[in-house]
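[job 4471] stage=fold_predict status=RUNNING
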Amino acid sequence: MTFRVIPGSNLDIATYPFLPPTTMSGYLRRIAMMAAGEELPKATVETKEEGAHYYALPPHLLTTGAIPIGMKGIHKTHRKGPSNFKHFGFSQIYRKKIDKQENIQLHTWEYFFCESMVGFVLAESSEHLVGFKDCEGWGCKIGKEGYAVVHSVSEPIALQQVRCAATPSTLLSPESIELEDLYQPIEFYGLFNYQWSSKSSNMPGGPASTQPSSIEGYIPLSVGNPVSGATFTLDYLHDGEDIFIALSWIQALQRGLPKK
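[job 4471] inference complete, writing structure tokens
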């Protein structure tokens, strides 16, 4: 899989070693649509003025991103690819053979491999999570390159806020890391998050709706990817067992949501 690092070079395509929240949101939206029997919308990188639309989970469903479990690694290789920076063929859900010859050049390309990934969809009410069980067993294109299948979906889990030292179950907001935890192994990246329109609603029809999302653009988002086993003293949402979702990461993801 390739979850392209942004901003980046047109010739050196690097990947994040995790599933970004926005990519997870768009992926689950497509899965929900397929599970409901809806046809997938076409995806392009055209500007909104040219008719492009965003398709993500409704703003009341917050995706944390997903981190790999088990074997993982990044393979770097060389491959031929288009020289036109505006080319969006690799990003399309539907592909077809074209008659004209593309201008080709050599790219350095990274692929992320892992056995599985675990991520979370957060909501204020379990009623908003109804229907996700239907997504089990469905697969779809994910990221710039790749394919993933929803292996299992848990029942809704109630979370309580606690403060403790724990190994995070998700990504982190770098701003929240305490001084005494700066020695813990962690990788830092830059991401982008959705900037939702102030007119956004909870989208009639839920995640399976064919209505485009009311997204105006993107805002920058800093992220920390903890190395396996690293512990951080933070405020977490905790299930009483082994789930620790950093509260500061949730707050960072909420910055682009419409004002209530």
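[job 4471] summary: The first strand starts at residue 12 and ends at 13.
[job 4471] exit 0
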